Amino acid sequence: MIVLPEKATKPTMYFIGVTTTKSSIMKLFPYWMEILGVDAVIKGIDLPIHADPEDYRAVVSFIKNDPLSMGALVTTHKIDIFNAASDLFEYLDPYAEMFGEMSSISKKDGRLEGFAKDPITSGLALDSFLPAGWWDNGGDAFILGAGGSAISVGSYILKQAKLPRRLVVSNRSQGRLTNIEKMFRDIRPEANMEFYLAPEAVDNDRVLSTLHPNSLVINATGLGKDRPGSPLTDNCVFPFNAYVWEFNYRGDLRFMYQALEQKNEKNLHVEDGWIYFLHGWTQVIAEVFHLNFTKDQFDAIERKSAEVCGR
């Protein structure tokens, strides 16, 4: 059974994850609060991947009933916490209900509210580096993984006016693969989509080998952060002139380094999850503390974060 935090003695935001102490947010949060003029602290709540549903309910109930517990950002557990505890919320935003996940927990007017912010944050991050009109080059989009992050970025891609030649998704388990296929076909029935069961890394290698030049390849599996490794083998071959996006910014980042090893030969553009991290956290902080971020505030947060983390 999970050990819950002590009752909050000042406004507190929680980070519900797996290895929260390793996240840069723990040292960055005080700087961000100073920039935003908010007097608050952050605490981590670590849960094992696919924890007991009662543990998820206990965490949500604690936040709901503790007056100075203001809310939380959820990572890794977005789908599981929705499945276990969505009935404890008085409000769920349309994305949370559509995708069956939540990344943000907050309170407003006595209501506990749950939001799925990733469709917004993944889009902001993707647009920060993928050139406008990229899909005119005839590339594919390959998403490795079928969890909350994969659902979010895939749904964002599918809602754009111009689509990739193919949207390809692979996943280790059939259940989540079936679920994401249903969602994506509901969002954009006419899109060219393919879904592959890939229990082993070599299976993903085979899918990768079918991609056209100018594709986008995304690691949305979580491998390389909370668990070491990559969804690809070291024998994988990336398509020429592709954008390769590692959703993580910490961990062993093996997927990213596999791409960097082929960067020159394949003319790859390799991105980690740093900007995604910044957008993800600022979007949830805005919800938890009921803020309207200005561009100047976000820019100040980005500069300070790069300085503190040596980026």
Describe this structure in words.
The structure is a single chain. The protein is α/β, with parallel strands linked by helices. It folds into two domains: 12-116 and 275-309, 3-Layer(aba) Sandwich (Rossmann fold); 120-272, NAD(P)-binding Rossmann-like Domain (Rossmann fold, 3-Layer(aba) Sandwich). It has twelve helices and twelve strands. The chain has a six-stranded mixed sheet, sandwiched between helices. A six-stranded parallel sheet has the order 9-8-7-10-11-12, with helices on both faces. Helix 5 packs antiparallel against helix 11 (274-288) and helix 6 (148-158) runs parallel beside helix 7 (174-187). The longest helix is centred in the last third of the chain and has 15 residues, at 274-288. The mean pLDDT is 94.
**Strand segment count:** 12
Report the CATH architecture of the largest domain: 3-Layer(aba) Sandwich
Largest sheet: 6 strands, mixed
Unreliable parts? none
Quickly count the helices.
12
- Element pattern in H and E: EHEHEHEHEEHEHEHEHEEHHEHH
| Portion in strands | 15-25%
Cα distance spanning the termini: 38 Å
User: For the largest beta sheet, what order do the strands appear in spatially?
Assistant: 2-1-3-5-6-4
What is the third-level CATH name, the topology of the largest domain?
Rossmann fold
The computed structural class is alpha/beta
What coarse outline follows from CA principal-axis ratios?
Answer: globular
- Mean pLDDT, to the nearest integer, reads 94
Give the CATH level 1 class of the largest domain: Alpha Beta
Q: What is the CATH superfamily label of the largest domain? A: NAD(P)-binding Rossmann-like Domain
Helix content: 40-55%
> Over the alpha carbons, how many angstroms does the gyration radius reach?
19 Å
Question: What is the count of distinct domains?
Answer: 2
